[in-house]
């Protein structure tokens, strides 16, 4: 099932998410719905807060970037209760976007390598290292479960320059080709 993605300005996107257990209601279906929603919106990652659930869960499939980084070719994964335990390496700029902030892309500086601990959908625990595009996508989605958006990494001046566009997104004054929920969209009056 395709779920609506919350737009910039929704308070859930700024809330630190909570851990869950494998007994979370409908977890298997939720994960499948998140993948379906992500693919329909042509994304490479989707976090539960983006669909209105303040829980520590995100999915990724950065395979569209496989031409640039062969290591992400078959990297379709589920991260439950993730915790980044280490970031290292040089900071690298990359043009990022977000399904919750359509039509805005910005150069974001992130470290090139991470170590993350998490559980998959079967309950198996992992501690893995990632680099390059995989590390970037994971850091972006991890930010969502920490209550952060990629715009939080921008300078105050750059964010002020984008503020009117961000306000338009929050009000639903934007065209998107996937289902979204806008926090400030005015309801149409019934005649």
Structure, described:
The protein has a single domain (5-181), classed as Peptide Deformylase (Alpha-Beta Complex). The protein is of the alpha+beta class and 191 residues long. The strands form 2 sheets. A 5-stranded antiparallel β-sheet has the order 2-3-4-5-6, with helices on both faces. Strands 1-7 form a two-stranded parallel ribbon. The longest helix is centred in the C-terminal third of the chain and has 15 residues, at 156-170. It is globular. The model has no long low-confidence stretch (mean pLDDT 95). The chain contains 3 helices and 7 strands, in the order βαβββββααβ. The chain is 23% helix and 31% strand. It has helices spanning 27-40, 132-145, 156-170; strands spanning 5-6, 45-47, 57-60, 77-98, 101-119, 125-131, 180-181.
């Amino acid at each position: 099932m395709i779920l609506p993605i919350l737009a910039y300005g929704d308070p859930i996107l700024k809330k630190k998410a909570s851990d869950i257990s494998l007994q979370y209601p409908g977890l298997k279906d939720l994960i499948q719905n998140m993948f379906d929603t992500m693919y329909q919106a042509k994304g490479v990652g989707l976090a539960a807060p983006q669909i209105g659930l303040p829980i520590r869960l995100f999915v990724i499939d950065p395979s569209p970037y496989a031409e640039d980084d062969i290591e992400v070719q078959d990297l379709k994964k589920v991260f439950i209760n993730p915790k980044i335990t280490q970031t290292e390496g040089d900071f690298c700029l990359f043009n990022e976007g977000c399904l919750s902030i359509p039509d805005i892309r910005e150069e974001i500086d992130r470290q090139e390598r991470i170590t993350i601990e998490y559980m998959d959908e079967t309950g198996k625990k992992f501690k893995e290292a990632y680099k390059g595009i995989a590390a970037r996508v994971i850091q972006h989605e991890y930010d969502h479960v920490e209550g952060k958006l990629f715009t939080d990494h921008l300078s105050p001046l750059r964010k002020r320059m984008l503020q009117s566009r961000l306000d338009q997104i929050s009000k639903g004054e934007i065209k998107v080709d996937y289902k979204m929920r806008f926090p400030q969209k005015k309801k149409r009056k019934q005649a």
